[in-house]
Amino acid sequence: MILAIASGKGGTGKTTVSVNLARVFGSDVQLLDCDVEEPNAHLFVKGTTINEEAVSIRIPAIDASRCDGCGECSRFCEYHAIISFGATPLVFAEMCHGCGGCALVCPKNAIHEIDKRIGVIETIENGNITLITGRLDIGVAMAPPLIRAVKSRIGSGIPTILDAPPGTSCPVITTIRGTDIVVLVTEPTPFGLHDLGLAVDMVRELGIPFGVVINRAGIGDACVHNYCERERIPLLLEIPDDRRIAEAYSRGSLIVDVLPEYRGFFENLISKIMNLLNEKRS
Amino acid sequence: MKIAFSTSGNDLTSPLDSRFGRAPKFLVYDSDNESFEVVDNQQNMNAAQGAGIQSAENVARMGVNALITGHCGPKAFRVLQAAGIKIFTTDAPTVGEALERFRAGKLTEAKAHDVEGHWA
Question: pTM score > 0.80 for this model?
């Protein structure tokens, strides 16, 4: 089972849900931090780093002696990563998605590909959790290739939780595509509802079963509850707005470790997720 | 010669936009027949990344010889330079005023980008 924890709005509690869920899972679990622009699951799942490897994408390099400046590469590239004005093209490595198209369309065979490092993947072990975390290098804007590399580490047969980046753009789509179920974390405020709506549209478009977790329940208003009811979206869990949770979070502690009364909340969430999954499968 | 100006308006009295890559429009002035045309740049104004590169490409394809704008970032500068376009930066409030300063020889050619990307 591959489960993604996502949200429209940032700061709603994706990581809080991910790490606590992983801890109470009751078996070995893989936790993938796919928020490679600002990974933070490692602040809660501290342990021994058992592996660290660099990730690269392939970017074009030009052989000027072969290039006749025809500009085919430049016309092909949707991202304007390679620009030609009738002379040897300029390459903007930071814009390149690494598709290799420019090298394929070059009639003079003047383009070959070289590695450009974009980030690292670190594997950390802590109890029942294997945390695989991607970290984009400073100055790199291209998150999806690194997220794909993180996801390629998913071992088969082990339950997997993906902590997604916020929003509804390419990094999020890359994360949740191919997962079995998505949990959308929101807060019960108009802002939370607005971005939840965007996230619901995204998940529906991708055809993945999903449910909602309301974090900081008690603040705001009833708009998210009403929305979920109207849209027939299962509400899987409400986490109360409890100052002690915020304090635990700020210290990098797991709620289920320091506030045992919340263990049941997350165990309950697991069974609701499993039910939802079985419902959709049958 | 053809000179491109970054602007938000439609004629010479319009404000000169201090941004190049994310300028809403370009006014392209042809000094040979003292006429101009205005080209939309909305698409790049809202681009997540690469606005400077695409704006520079657009300006180059219009066959301009010089660009007058407020500031120019590193990627745009590389493309404009490769296309052989001279870059002049100025704090002139309007396109017309910038053109006057250019004609009077008061503008000096930029030899490097003067802002980083996403500065505005």
Answer: yes
